[in-house]
């Protein structure tokens, strides 16, 4: 089907046509489309997809894209359960999703519109972080970033998405407004 081919060709999202969305069975149409997407996605071999993407992207890469690519490779090599990233604009999420990691990407943001836009990227789950700047007053960027990460890890543990001993990746920048990604860490959940 067109939906399956779109997924196999690397589409991040698909949408219903106007006729289908307004037809007699829109819920069933969405359920069928979801089923087709899941089946087609299970047929994609992620290592091969990563190799194809790597071959298609010609160096030099931007610093942020280099970090995104390396973070996804680390996630695949460590069999990470999740990738966490911080973003204000959504660029970090887009760059990470581009390389098709095998695990979900958890996007932490304070920007609701960027979070909503992140829903259009494959495997991305945005979360509005409730930590207010006032809560973090006096902390330097490293402490602030660590506070967000610990909040997200606790949330994912409570949702049973991760557990003690799991590997996760945390990709982020160090300063607000600077390049979107400048480092990543491999973390074992405690």
UniProtKB/TrEMBL annotation:
SUPFAM superfamilies, per database record: PK C-terminal domain-like (SSF52935)
Residue intervals of the Pyruvate kinase C-terminal domain: 65-187
Names of required cofactors: K(+)
Keywords, alphabetical: Magnesium, Metal-binding, Transferase
Name this polypeptide is given: Pyruvate kinase
GO MF: magnesium ion binding; potassium ion binding; pyruvate kinase activity
A Pfam family this chain is assigned to: PK_C
PANTHER family linked: PYRUVATE KINASE
Source superkingdom: Eukaryota
Residues in Pyruvate kinase barrel domain copies: 1-30
InterPro entries named in the record: Pyr_Knase, Pyrv_kinase-like_dom_sf, Pyrv_Knase_brl, Pyrv_Knase_C, Pyrv_Knase_C_sf
């Amino acid at each position: 089907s067109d939906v399956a081919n779109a997924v196999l060709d690397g589409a991040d999202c698909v949408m219903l046509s106007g006729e289908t969305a307004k037809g007699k069975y829109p819920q069933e149409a969405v359920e069928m489309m979801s089923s087709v997407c899941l089946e087609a996605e299970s047929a994609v071999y992620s290592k091969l997809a990563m190799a194809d993407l790597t071959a298609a992207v010609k160096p030099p890469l931007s610093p942020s894209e280099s970090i995104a690519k390396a973070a996804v490779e680390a996630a695949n090599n460590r069999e990470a359960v999740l990738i966490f990233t911080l973003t204000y604009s959504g660029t970090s999420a887009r760059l990470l999703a581009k390389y098709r990691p095998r695990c979900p990407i958890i996007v932490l943001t304070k920007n609701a519109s960027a979070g909503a836009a992140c829903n259009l990227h494959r495997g991305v789950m945005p979360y509005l972080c409730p930590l207010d700047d006032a809560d973090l007053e006096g902390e330097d960027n490293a402490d602030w970033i660590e506070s967000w990460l610990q909040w997200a890890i606790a949330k994912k543990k409570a949702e049973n998405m991760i557990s003690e001993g799991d590997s996760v990746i945390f990709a982020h920048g160090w300063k607000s407004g600077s390049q979107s990604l400048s480092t990543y860490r491999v973390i074992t959940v405690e």
